[in-house]
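Lecture 7, part B: from sequences to assemblies.

Below are the input chains for today's worked example.
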Amino acid sequence: DTGVSQDPRHKITKRGQNVTFRCDPISEHNRLYWYRQTLGQGPEFLTYFQNEAQLEKSRLLSDRFSAERPKGSFSTLEIQRTEQGDSAMYLCASSLGVTDTQYFGPGTRLTVL
Amino acid sequence: AQSVTQPDIHITVSEGASLELRCNYSYGATPYLFWYVQSPGQGLQLLLKYFSGDTLVQGIKGFEAEFKRSQSSFNLRKPSVHWSDAAEYFCAVGARDTGNQFYFGTGTSLTVIP
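Predicted structure of the full complex, as structure tokens:
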């Protein structure tokens, strides 16, 4: 399978805990995007990378959210001190270039109790 | 500011009937436009895209969409709907001047009646 993969698919955590999600993009895709999707809404852009450089992070929801892509391959999204409002589906997408189609992974569904 | 509006939250059609899902966008320049479909528990699957050129684009599963600059619209159509088309449909605009981050509409949920 050469598509975008995300791990874990589901995460249940207690309020105040930290969580980390992983995204493996399609091989050789140099752009990687993170989105959040809440129930009944379309995905909302959070941040993106070109190779290892994070080119846009002003749309991250708060300073509790951070993302990395240290070697320009996989990426992680961390949420610190989770709140119930963080419960959502977190989607990752990758593309070959700025004008290329974004291909989405299956998402990680986070539930904060 | 960039935005996408999908006016129809939910649509019900009979199997075999034609379908049109509406999408209006707001963007200062010529946009990249996309339609994605999302089935329960599945990721977003690309149906079709418009970058430039012919304003009528063909996609997978018999879908097509037409870009109308004057109306800022990119409506999705299918001449004959199949039961397997029941899903959530999202229109998105790619902001080409800001890294092509996508702005999505709120989606249209399609129900297909046998």
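Note for the exam: Residues 48 and 67 of chain A are 9 Å apart (CA to CA). Keep this in mind when comparing with the next example.
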